[in-house]
Write a structure and sequence with these properties.
globular, alpha/beta
Length: 227
Amino acid sequence: MRSFRDGVLRGWRVSNNSISIFVKISQLADKYADNLKTRVDQRVEEMEADDNSHYLIYQVLGVSDEEGKLIDVYQNKGRFLYKYAGSFLEEAAKLCFLEKYPDSGSLRIPNTIGQRPKRFEIDCLVEERDAIEIKWRDATTDGDHITKEHTRMQCVKEAGYKPIRVMFYYPLRTQAKRIQKTLETLYAGANGEYHYGDDAWNYIQKYTGVDLKGILETIAAERNNGN
């Protein structure tokens, strides 16, 4: 993927420090893209040996074998894509904080309120103050999610940190939106912060000086151009 990175850098007019973080994120993108392709190819190959007797039900519902196979393949591809997309974006965001705050990093704190889980993980603790949770998106509709997040926030506060949630993509389903609105209220009640959508991208740039969205848009443009 060297030609890909070289092409990106030629079109990226930034300072040396920004070029450094750009290279790190583009290398991370290479790694995730390669791993995703390997895993998807492996699963598609495995599916050739799968029992397809369930296609009978597809046929009953008016779906041909050919279409049913495509649906199964893309369902599996989608499952891996969502997993890798979320992990990549969250790791890329952490790199932005590390670029400006080299001592920042993940930290596990004890659950001082409940029994499960025993510990909560802070995705990125900056200057022993801001406990930042990074999510690419959160489409859960489970009410228990609110309880768990509330407990996590309380534990973060008791540990002496400020709870901050950064989520890049807001959910589309009505119930999932309600969950997020509740979480937003809980963060405000805990004297924390909740940033989502455009505000999340802006927060990363303002806090770290790294235009993460701009970097990802440039990488995506280069990939779309066939590099």
